[in-house]
Design a protein that fits this description.
This protein has about 270 residues and is mainly α. It contains 7 helices and 2 strands; from the N terminus they run αααββαααα. The protein has a two-stranded antiparallel ribbon. Helix 4 packs antiparallel against helix 5. The longest helix has about 30 residues. It is globular. It starts with about 25 loop residues before the first helix and ends with a helix. About 25% of the residues are buried. About 15% of the residues have low confidence.
């Protein structure tokens, strides 16, 4: 039994059941996330990359599709290797790919913001791809609008999953049934998911009239949170847990702050 006041308020997502597993950690949820976020979202992202490049050769298209399949396969392998020593290898590789995705989000937002400040001049740039037998000369494709729509679609698919992951991971970070190392790991992962949520929201906000400055702030803040969490996570693993004490202090401090705020309104 824990002494009174020794732990932050419980945020246990399972209502105190000792046997239940958080839905966010189940294979069913992982496969659901893979199907929507990675398969559908990845397909939209791949299409946006092709359109943004303008004229694309068969070799470039094939290389892009191979990269998409590689990421999809790596995510599937990572799901199968979770909670094994080999899971760190696939997790590190996925975070490396995630870093590129975060940079692409930042680049997209900067381009949107620049377009807005120039009064839409850049938005009038277009390329015309003659699709034989289908669109002919009338088949002008306005790339900025299409690419924007596809990127927003990817963010809209990712947002609910990233939001759910944030809540689930932070709850596990304060689940007293878990060991301190696991709580710290979930706390760091929760910060990363929160960063991803901000980036998703920023991309969506970029298409709202007048929302570009807010979008930039969200994406930059989200990118810093995501990158910082990945740096802390892998540095801690590489150092054999040298950062665990600091992570615990921050986690418990935030837990106490949440408890104090709850006590005010209770």
């Amino acid at each position: 039994m824990h002494p009174p006041g020794s732990n932050p308020p419980s945020l246990n997502p399972n209502g105190g059941s000792a046997d239940s597993e958080p839905f966010g950690e189940t294979l069913a949820y992982k496969m659901l996330e893979l199907s929507f976020k990675d398969v559908i979202g990845g397909t939209l992202s791949y299409s946006a990359g092709l359109l943004e490049g303008g004229t694309v050769t068969a070799r470039q298209g094939g290389a892009g599709y191979a990269n998409f399949l590689f990421q999809l396969g790596l995510k599937g392998i990572d799901i199968g290797l979770q909670d094994t020593p080999y899971g760190n290898l696939t997790g590190l590789a996925l975070d490396g790919l995630g870093a590129k995705g975060a940079y692409d989000s930042y680049k997209f937002i900067v381009q949107r913001n620049t377009t807005s400040m120039l009064g839409g001049i850049s938005a009038q740039r277009s390329i015309s791809n003659s699709v034989q037998g289908v669109t002919g000369a009338a088949g002008a494709v306005r790339v900025p609008g299409i690419v924007t729509g596809l990127n927003v679609g990817v963010a809209a698919i990712s947002l609910p999953f990233d939001m759910y992951n944030t809540v689930s991971q932070f709850r596990q970070a304060y689940d007293s049934r878990l060991g301190e190392d696991k709580q710290n790991e979930k706390f760091v992962d929760g910060i990363g998911s929160l960063g991803s949520t901000f980036m998703d929201a920023g991309i969506i906000a970029s298409v709202i009239p007048g929302g570009q400055p807010i979008a930039v702030a969200l994406v930059v803040t989200g990118g810093v949170l995501w990158a910082g969490s990945r740096l802390v996570k892998w540095s801690n693993k590489a150092s054999g847990g040298a950062l665990s004490k600091g992570i615990s202090s921050v986690r418990k401090g935030i837990g106490k702050a949440i408890g104090w705020m709850k006590s005010i309104f209770s």
